[in-house]
Amino acid sequence: MNTLRSFWLLLALVFGLSSSVVWAVDTPPDVLARTTTQEVLAILKQDKEALSSNQSKVHELVEAKILPNFDFNRMTQLAVGKHWPRATAKQKQSLVAEFRNLLVRTYSSSLTAFSNQTVDFKPMVIKPDDTDVTVRSEIRQPGGQPIPINYSMYKTAFGWKVYDVAIDGVSLVTNYRASFSSTIRQNGIDGLISTLAAQSQAPRGVAKPAPRPGS
Question: 106 and 201 in contact (C-beta within 8 Å)?
Fold first, then answer.
């Protein structure tokens, strides 16, 4: 399985929430990830055909059940990097909105790629005063090598939130930062906003995650 495709699929497996689950603000991040994975695997197996034929339903699932687990403001700020302070308040708002839209689009397209993957979470110890942790896991697939996935999460007033993901040692934030920086150097911050908007509005299958640096 393609590594980037695996990344988006793992987000769906790990951080999709069943509507029957209500998580406490103090739910440990590893418990959140491990428990919800079991429910989402069942949902994907049961509704695979319906999700494949109805992209609107997939978008609704992503918006309502998955994305609340991510801090898009922090993710966007980290991805834009050194250019973030130069952006106006309006530009920052647009960057967050367009980056989120792009991830929703890409995420939705990848959600239906579920097949026979399983997820194995590594043991972790969280101290009472920890506010920033890494949840480590592996995706296992028939006939392939395990792919390590690490989720960077931090504690907020609304519970633990994801602000970065690393697959095979490649950080999502770092990956996008290289792409964003190149676009900003060529076309400015407004150029990046326009590029993100165009990608999120492209026909299904065209929008995709930023390529690995050097690829």
Answer: no
pTM: 0.77
Cα dihedral 85, 214, 9, 38 sign = negative
Q: What is the number of alpha carbons within 13 Å of residue 191 lying toward its C-beta? A: 11
Q: pLDDT digits over 133-184, tens only? A: 998 988 887 888 888 888 899 999 888 888 998 888 888 899 899 999 999 9
Pick the CATH number of 3-201 from 3.20.20.360, 3.20.20.120, 3.10.450.710, 3.40.50.300: 3.10.450.710
